[in-house]
Amino acid sequence: MNKKGYAEFSGIVLSIRKHKEKDALIKIFTLEFGKKMFFIRNYNKSNSPMKSALLPFTYASYIGSINENGLSFIQDYKEAETFSAIQKDIYRNAYATYLANLADAAIEDSIPNSHIFQLLLSCYQSISNGFDAEMITNIFEVNMLKYFGVYPELEACRICGSKQEPFDYSAKYSGVLCQNHFSEDPNRLHIAPAAIYFSRMFLKISPDQVSSIKLKPENKEAIRSFIDFFYDEYVGMKLKSKSYIDQMYQWENAFTIPVRSSKNTKEDVIEENEEEV
Ligand SMILES: [Zn+2]
Description:
277 residues, alpha+beta, CATH 2.40.50.140, five-stranded mixed β-barrel, two-stranded antiparallel sheet, 8 helices, elongated, disordered C terminus, binds zinc ion
């Protein structure tokens, strides 16, 4: 930071809140100073010059004054990546919003965290590039668990240390059990072994690597419910944006399952549509 108090920093826009008629309070996750709240005057005026660099999910290099306590301010920006492919798509937008909310919940104000910053950025780049948003979200979720104090052992059996799969998950032992030790916990999760396998893998790969992974729908579902289990049971946080995704998922299945279930159903659906036209 120079003598006037201006600093150059990289940031990702986490949330935008309207303030009075024309102004806004924008939460930006900065690489250098952690999460900060910025006061943006005249943001809600249609010709606001700063708006293009302060849209949701935007990654940019900003110039502004950072205050230790209270609000910070932005003077200008140099480069901005607005991820327009995410802005325009309701489905990608929903996942990106959830990731922003999850990052927001995981990090403290004013404490830099380059791991979360780089991961969030790389998730947005991959979602923007059209890779599987659901899998990318799962990668972000499993990586965030430790910031909520949740460290499930997914590598080796908690009883004998064996790495021989299939595993099941035991809440009692806070980790996986190998087949020889399933009997140690009758209340084990009975989760599909693939859910454990991929959750472990998601801790090690980068978001753009999902382009090389093809998952069966039932395995995707198992991974979802395995990760949800940790968030419901241990993190104990249900974000609105996550509930929205869950709803979206239910609608999707409500519309696709009858079509898949039999040929007759499919014909019925087509006939109905033709009549309507
Ligand atoms: Zn074992």
